[in-house]
């Protein structure tokens, strides 16, 4: 038997598409068969499977498990929960890998799969290999078993292991995503007073879209924090691997700013260690890590790439602007927004200040939101190369870790190709508005030279 996946669903970091259109039940079955063959080739026989709260996750999960079983792999079902709970399952249970059925923070009609095998994320070339293997029908045969295990209590126990935070008054917004039920269990055991909204799982996302990096999605949380006069607020994305936060005044604490706070607590215990952030992060973060005696490392955007770099450098902490926070210190090195929230409470406690005071003390820089430019997929990487070549001829100060990041007297600007969409992503940061304007003009000028006009791409 052979199976042809729609090529658009084989993404850089996972498999993801629109259910009933680019992603079907038969795709889920074929993925199970293909993954089983890959797993058995590496001596992996037992795989944990979890799912998020989308309306079609149960259907896709059933087809996936059917495929895994017929490929000769035993499945341990951990039920509905955030992606990090499935990641936790791969360490906690006697399994050789895991698959989470999740559409992450995508719209309600999307779904997909995050894949782990033998302690690593399956991404990039390995995902393309899954496509080729399915197309040639290189499948194993067998009859695996299914076992159901409830690991929610164990997961919450582990989230709170060694916790030493003060009692704060906190607002929480789960956006009707998969982290809700776990959060309800967690706040019962956290000190302080907790106001939780939208923890009821609903795959239609009736209140707002579960993506805390888009500020409009935080308006309910801002109202809650203001109304109840809370110390701060925390929000999660649809599958609980990305965190958003606001202070008592409703100001957003962005991913790189959260990392500043978390890094201080980690470096107090582990002086001189490497802390990683992606190329979209503020220069103020890299400067702050150095000031705290750590080694700042700028790396490529993308959770799989960051995890790989953490392993290589033995970094205890890493993070992305998008709200993925990875703790190796006292944790497993994967991105877990619930764990990041617990560590944020600890870090604010240890600072002796409020989150609002910590935000006040941060160097003020003005930045653009992430700007996205729709481009032809075939030109995506070429444009970045053209910009880089022109700039190096001009003798500009360029960092080419991931795209082009240019430093000037005003600040810095970045252009990179998205790994997941046919867009270029740009961002700029300066010490004042006039400087920011000059940086954005440079971005526009460079893109114009490559024939790209600024037309905002849809998120």
Please describe the topology of this protein.
Blueprint: E1 15-18, H1 25-41, E2 46-51, H2 57-70, E3 74-80, H3 83-92, E4 97-101, E5 110-117, E6 120-121, H4 125-136, E7 146-148, H5 152-159, E8 168-173, H6 180-189, E9 192-197, H7 219-228, E10 232-236, E11 243-247, E12 252-253, H8 255-269, E13 274-278, H9 283-291, E14 295-299, H10 303-313, E15 317-319, E16 325-327, H11 337-351, H12 355-361, E17 366-367, E18 371-374, H13 380-394, E19 397-399, E20 404-407, E21 411-417, E22 423-430, H14 433-449
Parallel strand pairs: 2-3, 2-4, 3-7, 8-9, 8-10, 13-14, 13-15
Antiparallel strand pairs: 1-5, 4-5, 5-6, 10-11, 11-12, 15-16, 17-22, 18-22, 19-20, 20-21, 21-22
Helix pairs in contact: 1-2, 8-11
